[in-house]
Specification:
5-stranded antiparallel β-sheet, 4-stranded antiparallel β-sheet, 25% helix, DEAD-box_helicase_OB_fold, RNA helicase activity
């Protein structure tokens, strides 16, 4: 408990130094952490003590020799060859979780681990990736696009540390390689990355799944799309939007090879296939909401500004559409 109080004091002082306005003080009646908070704390401990992981030895069979019998309730750590144990005074002594992290090892009658915390094996590739050797992405379940994380995700097994402990399949970000670009291209064509491209899925000349087939390079359109993504380093929506900021026509000609020629004009007029940008401004003094929509297509000579004003006090809506040509400006009101 003394170490806990010292650690709390150290963390409190550190936070107050980094954030002067925090004004955090030690609360002697601090409530115990919730289950979620306890889980997060254990994950933080693992990230900081990734080289101090131990795994429980399997229980020896009844007819085991003396060497194996000595391993009963023992753990194998990554630092030593000798078995180590949980101290009898530890709250985890009776639980004996399969994986733990420890602060240090003391030798008395046995080698005892001190300052231990239970962890889950599936956390190892996430919070201790440098100690893991990952397998290739599994085909079942297949990779997927996580919209919330803007990542290509896949399942991989792994081994941990010099002891090569097997870790079960875990959902992780797809490793950075050529196949990641292939999967991103597939999800892009399917409309999973940019919803505006979903309306063209039914008219594609090749299935988006072609991008991840072993024979994909036999079709010029797949190779061209892959090369453009790799050249610009585009393997996420964020990087795609940055590429469109630099060059609004990025991927236009390439995507046109995937759709019938009759659709090329429509695609050119609406490229890139992004939704309108809408911003709201609220004037508290006049109770008026002002909304602005700005559209500018690289293939069009005109820029469109749509301004909408709503006065809550009078329930009047005033809308203006500005169509600005290179040499003229016209105002339409309703």
């Amino acid at each position: 408990m003394k170490e806990v109080r010292k650690l709390r004091a150290q963390l409190t002082n550190t936070v107050n130094m980094v954030i002067p306005d925090a004004n955090i003080c030690l609360d002697p009646k601090l409530k115990p952490p919730s289950d979620i908070q306890a889980k997060l704390i254990r994950q933080i401990i693992l990230a900081g003590l990734a080289d101090h992981v131990a795994r429980r030895f399997p229980d020896p069979p009844p007819d085991a020799d003396e060497t194996l019998k000595k391993r009963k309730h023992a753990y194998q750590c990554t630092e030593l060859d000798e078995p180590v144990f949980i101290h009898p005074f530890s709250v985890l002594y009776k639980q004996k979780p399969e994986f733990i992290v420890y602060q240090h090892i003391e030798e008395t009658s046995k080698l005892y681990m001190k300052g231990i915390s239970a962890i889950e094996s599936e956390w190892l590739p996430v919070y201790a990736p440098s100690f893991c050797t990952l397998s290739k992405p599994q085909e079942d379940p297949p990779p997927s696009y996580d919209k919330s994380k803007d990542q290509i995700r896949c399942h991989m097994t792994s081994t941990f540390g010099r002891c090569c402990w097997e870790v079960p399949s875990v959902d992780l970000e797809y490793p950075a390689n050529l196949d990641k670009y292939r999967w991103f291209a597939r999800f892009l064509l399917e409309g999973a990355v940019v919803p505006g491209m979903k309306k063209y899925v039914t008219m594609l000349l090749s299935s988006p799944s072609t991008m991840v087939k072993s024979w994909a390079k036999l079709q010029p359109r797949t190779e061209k799309l892959l090369k453009e993504l790799v050249a610009a380093g585009v393997d996420s929506k964020e990087s795609l939007l940055k590429a469109w900021q630099k060059d609004p026509k990025y991927l236009l000609n390439t995507f046109c090879q995937w759709v019938p020629q009759s659709k090329h004009t429509e695609i050119e007029m609406t490229w890139p296939p992004l939704p309108l940008t809408l911003t709201d401004t609220f004037d508290h003094s006049s109770n008026i909401v002002e909304q602005h929509v700005y559209i500018q297509r690289p293939s069009e000579k005109a820029s469109f500004n749509f301004n909408r004003y709503f006065d809550h006090s009078s329930n009047i809506v005033e809308q203006h559409m500005y169509i600005q040509q290179p040499s003229e400006k016209r105002l339409q009101s309703s």
